[in-house]
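Section handout 9: paired folding examples.
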Amino acid sequence: MPPFTAGLFVSASLVASALVTAGGWNPAAAGHGQAATAGAERLTADTPRTTTAGNGFIAPSGWSIVVRGPATILEAPEGGSRLALIDVQGADAEAAVTAAWAAYPPQTRWPLKVTNDLPDRDGWSRRRQMSYQTSPNERRDVAAFALYADGQWTVVIYDMAQDVGEKRGAQVSLVFDRLLPKGYTRETFAGKKAHPLDAARIAALGAFVEAGRKATGVPGVSVGLVQDGKTVFAGGFGVRELGTSTPVDADSLYMIASNTKALTTLLLARLVDQHKITWDTPVTTLLPSFRLGDEATTRQVLVKHLICACTGLPRQDFEWLFEFKDLTPERAVAALGSMQPTSKFGEMFQYSNPLAGAAGFIGGHVLFPDLDLGTAYDRAMQEQVLTPLGMTSTTFDYARALAGNHAAAHASDVDGHPAVAAMAINYSIIPVRPAGAAWSNVTDMLKYVQMELAQGNLPGGVRYVAKAPLLERRVPQVPTGKDSTYGMGLSVDTTYGVSVVHHGGDMIGFHSDMIWLPDHNVGAVILTNGDPGWLIRGGFRRKLLEVLFDGRPEADAQLAAGAKTYAEQLAAERKLLTVPAEPALAGTLAARYSNAALGEIAVSRNGAATIFDFGEWKSEVGSRTNPDGSVSFLTTEPGLIGFEFVVVKGQTPSLILRDAQHEYRFEPR
């Protein structure tokens, strides 16, 4: 099943990126491993602790902690989902992991799926990650991470239910963010002055992007840099589309996906500045028909809650990814009435695209109450954001974007080769477009970043928006780790001692980031047209800091390792998958399936291939027999690899599709 990120949507291989960049994973079902609760301490606040060898970390509030021999075991409040930090001796990483599993004996043993080596980082060397093959009906993710420092190994076992892992992902990041060897101090750029981005430093950034592009197979990357109010670089690397020689440049349009959210909250900031709303205005006073879950929840929702990822509303993206052909903004907003938060407001980070969509539509409705929600938003964005900022190329009109200088979407095929991606599913975001449907380019996005750095002023000193509502969007609403927070459509990261404001964006074949350092008057935009472009854009943030502050050269090795891990993860998944689908298994399927929320699947054959047609888009599927004997069918279209339909045995089998916190059962018709 393709995981989702704060950048909107990415293909299944993002898992590899998450492992490399955060050291984390995505989690599992209750009842595994020895009971960690007996004699455990329940924490009432985020608490600094150490492993048995003295390595520091932060234990999250609400979790239980217990020490058993060399193992320090953290258990999530839901029970049965754990992080185990185990200090052991061993000749190598494999021996260390074997010793760690012996100290943390689970009731289930999972086959090893793939092993990846990682570069040195944060005082740890000889880093290695091991991913295990769980069965989909376990709804569990399991991994081990071996880290070496001071003559000893620390192994982290990640053993969690998928719903808990998604819900508590920020708390998992909290543990990894400060898991450091005893006595180690992370590099900091606090108090340093940024170097001018001269020709040599710009060339170093360009070389990083070009090397990353080649390592990942991403066809094209466009980059822009600003410093002290001036554009110091704007250009492109690579091509618009595989098999062509037309280069990308600063004017090439890309889908910017969730970077759209910052533009949407800029619209809201303008409305605050114009005294039409406040951040604390109850939403039902602006749109009386608005509902979220039950009445008690609805009454709590203020304007800021629509876009803060802090309401506890979990991802529920499948419903617009599969059924968007006839979806209108009105219906998308109304659907929120059936969605219920799974944590309290402000308690933890949970990212909701439909709720962010409602934020923009309600902003447009405030200005143009007589128009339908989509038209009102489009007009409001044009008049309040795009035209004043001079963003003349930025558009929500796909036909306009695709008719001109634009980058085509790319992704790996099922065998790991770069290919043109399935574009049809990228139309799914249009009905919730304030969350991620804008197309833009480096030229336009730099104008936006310049305005942010100028704290609401346009070139020449003209005031565009008041400073207070603009900056309120950066104020932490919920933590996403120890050194990172989410505001309103913007993230702030202080990992290396300087404040970095940014937001990522991900749709099929498009991955981007916009970045600025408000205390150093430096900003950047990076747009990519291929999976795994998230590796390039994520590494670029670190590389920019290295170039500006003469930091340790880590970004290049991390990106190279990320690209290698991505390829190895794809290859490991491919070995488990039969394409075309096993005829005997495919032959048991009904010709048509339906689900009330996600619509219909038409099953057909094209030669040896089995095709799942969802109406809005379709894909050949492969088959896989899981360790527990269950059977899955997985989509294989480039960019759509990994939507997993698990067979429920019967005379005519049903199919189950899951995200981390929801389950959709397709019945035969």
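Moving on to protein 2 of 2.
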Amino acid sequence: MDNLNYGIIGNCRSAALISVKGSMDWSCLPEFDSSSIFAKILDEKKGGSFEILVDDSYEIKQAYENRTNILVTTFSNGKDAFELRDFMPRYHKMEGGYHAQPEIIRYVKLVSGSPKLSIHYNPRLEYAKEATNSFIKKDFIVSLTDEQQYDTVFLYTSFEKEKVLNGDTLTLKDDGFFLITYNEKLLVPNLEKVYLEMERTKIYWLDWCDRTPTYKKYNDKILRSALTLKMLTYDKTGAVLAAATTSLPETIGEVRNWDYRFCWIRDASMVIKVMSELGHKNSALRYLQFIIDLMPDKDEKFQIMYGINKEKTLTEITLDHLDGYKGSKPVRIGNAAYQQTQNDIYGILMDVIHEQVCKFGTDLENCEELWGITKGIVWIVDKHWQEPDKGIWEFREEDRHFTFSKVLCWVAIDRAIKVAEIFGKHHKLEMWKDLEKAIREDIHKNAWNDEVKAFVQSYGSNYLDASVLLMESYGFIDAKDPKFVSTVHAIDKDLNNDGLLYRYKNQDDFGLPSSSFTICTFWFIKSLFKMGEEEKAEALFKQVLSYSNHLGLFSEDIDFKSKRLLGNFPQAYSHLALIECAILFSKKHSEQEIIDHITDL
């Protein structure tokens, strides 16, 4: 089956996708949202790639080195074998901070025999909008564009540069390397230095994993997802990306193709909450600082998303010269959704603030700024919660009173009240409690549909929506409440398609959705589990896990029929929800072990 069989490497500054055959088909330097240097994934002919080519006698396998983000692709014909170890350097510097240069290292390790390979090195800078020309210099190969925009990338290698650039056969007699860098190196790298970079990066990821809790069940799934989420965090500002790619389609041949290399407040806040639960508090604190930096004016409304360097204007344009993934046009960069109003972001953000305040209280370095943001959020919600918006799924046309948005407005006030109590700001509580009650009563009155026997997508509609499953997760309603149970069963009947969930089934701006939104299935699994249908939930969880790619990675969507991965990749949303489900099952398993042990005594 044709699938998104890619691994991701990264260093919290940028990332690259490596195919199961060892081809680098997507990378942007120097940062996540920079223009691409390789984009074969978006146009097989024009996009550009860095391929390792062997004859048909070689079997190719791929896996991550255990507990790291070093991707190992093994080529073997039985007699001759070598490993391609792909990574982006990241490690602690002696003087503090991190070494995370805009560069990619491909370490070629000889395993046995005398393997033969050739290189197809074809960078196409600036999204391949113009010709990229490569030239051999004394110490490196330089590739550049200069017709419309000047850009360069440098390749250092231990192999003969002429043979590399010409695609001639290379016979491996010893280890070797390729180092792609956005900046010319002051010191020419050699094999020993590159090997040291690999070992330092390996130790960094091993140490990071050592600070992550170990779980009785699904630990490998939790850890791989956590490592992936870490790669989607941008160290410079604390932003969290929704995904590492742009324009991978939700459905092949259709137009639901978006740029996800930005920081959605909703997605990022959910990621940070999970990472915090896994013990990685520094990510949470950096993200909170990112939020603080975005709020210079007390009455300024949050956008739903920002650039990773805090950009507020994310103009969307199309790259018409690229054919798109499997011919799915258009290819977009930028994202017009930044102009939308989505009232749910305030509740999701307040939930993260509340969690961090609960953990650290007034010990938080920025607690005064957070209290200011809390008051600002309450002010904004009070003024706007009764207005319609675009909703979590970013409908681009009609605004509606979406149930999820209303519930998260309630969450914003509920968490603000709790934060006020922790900070001892009791003078705010009476007014805020009145507001919380008003929003809660409004939801119960207008979101429940007696005919459907469920909380519906928006006020006055008959449509179901998977997002309302989060009512329980955010504490609006108990999992055993008859209304919630009835809602879950209604969603099961209407939105479940062979164990995969639609987000919704009503027509949107682009017609009827034809693929499953992966996070929705995980939300459904959590809801079943919380209701007490634990066996059904875990069986469904195992089924969904089987749809990951060969490395345990998920994109945004899964095709209902073929089960192929679709949408931007890897998707933070999908992996945070996977972690939440896996932790639920693992904790239940641990509790059962304790009960069984006590029974045996």
